[in-house]
Amino acid sequence: MVVEEAFWSYGYSTRDTRATFLRAIAEIESMRRVFTRSKTLSVGRSVVEVT
Description:
The chain is mainly alpha-helical. The protein has one domain. It is elongated. It is built from two helices and no strands.
């Protein structure tokens, strides 16, 4: 139910709204990578990228 609502809400949103949403996701992903690298190196492990 929630997924379907999100699908329709996203689908009917404006291009600007979708672009803002996608930029936010990209920023979160970038921050996750920086955080993962920082924490991994701080404990002396090698960084393995998980997608």
